[in-house]
UniProtKB/TrEMBL annotation:
Transmembrane segments: 6-29, 49-71, 91-110, 130-151, 163-190, 210-235, 247-265, 277-304, 330-349, 369-389, 410-430, 450-472, 506-523
Name recorded for this polypeptide: B(O/a)3-type cytochrome-c oxidase subunit 1
Protein's UniProt keywords contain Cell cycle: no
Residue ranges annotated for the Cytochrome oxidase subunit I profile domain, each copy included: 10-479
Family in the record: Belongs to the heme-copper respiratory oxidase family.
Length: 542
């Protein structure tokens, strides 16, 4: 891609890894506190560290990486460069996001925003923390508009042609993100900022949580979809094959667009104030959003098997041996896929109302999202980094880097096995999430959980070694010998069916999104506004 775009992409990717390092330090420390292995010097709190860990890793690392990666792919596939307006918007977005990140981090470090990454009211942060979040979201919108602009211009100059798959997927991801962030923007601007400035005395907690989860669930697909871009578009090329089907890939992304938003209630199944019917409806829609992931699994298996057979593999599983096990561009994302099988199954468990009553607010949930976002997504992002950095900086991906990358992936998987495995188990025994070291006055249950908490801390320490090695790898990639690294983009198999034109009729898809949201949310939200907790004010003016 154009050198100027490479600088923009690199700026995003490097800041992502700075956030990963800082978030990793906070993460390992809070894990050691939770396991009772260390006590923090007075002045630093467990919840403060947990907030830093969650915000820096789940919100900042991911958002920077995703935007950097998607800007690179959009530039690459829509003419090799970002248009001048897109590049400008990309930089404005970067500056806004960075201003937000710096302000937010300062307020967390000052212990004035110890509200965890979900910032649920009535926990209150300094208004500047919320303003920082608005800046991050506004910045991400700028980059989204930049991607739309390149895509639209490409469509204009290539009338009647099917858009490049990468650009299409980036557009879907950013539309989903923009619709989703409307929820959290309403929460922050109309509720949390006026309340934290003291302009209103109370907030409608039920409504604020609902607006948060309107955003919070599609947020997890905002993390996942860029990983899926890699699985659909990059992995077939890396293994020496072709993409199974362009149409299937596009359809799965469109299904995510439709079904990832009207499902937030599955995070609120145990909350009062939402009637059974609306919870039930959103659980049904949650099961719908599982389908595109199952389609993705099918498509990946098909790609692996076909490529293997083309290379001469025999028998039912002969293709497995043909996969490029020593190539980190494949190995790291593959481990992510493999782990997504139990991780996704855990999600389906969470979404089932009765079982949710067992796992909600326990460490099981923490285990679930460390497998999904912190393993499936993170390992895929790491896998992308190994070719993205050298490819845009004109360097070589050396054999040594492959080895270091594979070692890093194994360390990550082992650390996560211990950490997430014990989180899931302790969660089933009832151990709560988000609680500092406590034996609850030596209650037998809490004493029973303790060995699992120690195993979590051991896993967390191994993962921290993984973070340090990953940061080392990024530096090594920046200093690799000059040369050429491919930006791997797969072609579609000849046998694939034609992609229906309907898939790019954005008016149709966005209208369906709006209809689904209105069906799933309008009645219960009106109920929350009209019947707030006595004395609370939903919005400033009401
Ligand atoms: Fe989740 C809570 C339900 C997916 C993240 N989730 C969370 C939280 C986070 C999170 C961060 O219904 C905590 C929020 C908080 O702080 O409170 N989740 C689901 C469901 C799915 C799901 C149904 N979650 C994700 C993904 C995440 C993520 C993805 C991040 C990226 N989740 C829930 C629910 C809760 C929840 C409840 C609330 C719990 C509570 O009570 O608080 C589904 O999307 C999962 C579908 C996935 C699959 C797997 C498909 C497998 C594939 C891999 C194929 C592998 C291959 C490898 C090809 C069905 C695609 C080849 C292998 C060989 C052997 C060769």
């Amino acid at each position: 891609i154009d050198r100027r775009d490479a600088t923009l992409v690199l700026a995003h990717v490097l800041l992502a890894f700075v956030a990963l390092l800082l978030g990793g330090i906070a993460g390992v420390l809070q894990g050691l506190v939770r396991g009772g292995l260390i006590t923090l010097p007075s002045g630093i709190g467990y919840y403060q560290l947990l907030t830093a860990h969650g915000v820096l890793m789940a919100l900042i690392f991911t958002t920077y990486f995703i935007i950097g990666f998607m800007l690179s792919g959009v530039a690459k596939t829509t003419g090799g460069r970002l248009l001048p307006l897109s590049r400008k918007l990309g930089w404005i977005g970067y500056v806004l996001m960075t201003a937000g990140t710096v302000i937010g981090t300062i307020f967390i470090l000052l212990n004035k925003a110890t509200v965890l990454y979900t910032f649920y009211a009535p926990m209150q942060a300094s208004p500047w923390f919320y303003i920082a979040l608005v800046l991050v979201v506004a910045g991400s919108w700028m980059s989204g508009i930049a991607m739309f602009h390149n895509y639209r211009q490409w469509k204009k100059t290539n009338r009647g042609k099917l858009s490049p798959l990468f650009a299409f997927m980036a557009v879907v991801t950013m539309i989903m993100w923009m619709v989703a962030t409307v929820g959290v923007a309403l929460e922050i601007i109309l509720q949390l900022i006026p309340w934290s400035f003291g302009w209103v005395e109370r907030v409608n907690v039920m409504l604020s949580r609902t607006l948060f989860w309107f955003f919070g669930h599609p947020l997890v697909y905002f993390w996942l979809l860029p990983a899926y871009i890699c699985w659909y578009v990059v992995i077939p090329k890396v293994i020496g094959g072709k993409m199974f089907s362009d149409a299937l890939a596009r359809l799965s992304f469109l299904l995510f667009l439709l079904f990832s938003i009207p499902v937030g209630f599955h995070h609120q199944l145990m909350e009062p104030g939402i009637s059974d019917f609306w919870k039930y409806l959103q659980v049904v829609l949650t099961m719908m959003v599982v389908i595109p992931s199952l389609m993705t699994a099918f498509s990946l298996f098909a790609t692996f098997e076909r490529t293997g057979r083309e290379k001469g593999a025999r028998g039912l599983f002969g293709w497995f041996k043909m996969l490029p096990w020593k190539d980190v561009r494949f190995f790291a994302p593959f481990m992510g896929m493999l782990i997504f099988i139990p991780a996704g199954a855990g999600g389906i468990i969470n979404a089932s109302n009765q079982v949710n009553a067992v796992v909600h607010n326990t460490l099981w949930v923490t285990g679930h999202f460390h497998l999904t976002v912190a393993t499936t997504v993170a390992l895929t992002f790491f896998g992308i980094t190994y070719w993205l950095i050298p490819s845009i900086t004109g360097r070589t991906l050396t054999a040594r880097m492959h080895k270091l990358g594979i070692a890093q992936t194994i360390i990550w998987a082992v650390g996560m096995f211990f950490m997430s495995g014990s989180m899931h188990t302790a969660g089933l025994f009832g151990s709560p999430r988000r609680t500092a070291f406590t034996t609850y006055q030596d209650h037998p249950d809490a004493v029973f959980w303790m060995p699992y908490h120690v195993a979590m801390a051991v896993g967390g320490t191994i993962l921290f070694i993984g973070v340090v090695l990953m940061v080392y790898n990024v530096v090594a990639l920046l200093r690799a010998p000059k040369g050429y690294t491919e930006y791997p983009l797969a072609e579609v198999a000849e046998t694939a069916e034609q992609t229906p034109r309907l898939f790019e009729r954005w008016g149709v898809w966005i209208s369906l999104v709006v209809i689904l949201i209105l069906v799933a949310y309008s009645v219960p939200m009106m109920d929350m506004v009209n019947n707030p907790v006595p004395g609370s004010k939903p919005f400033v003016t009401w």
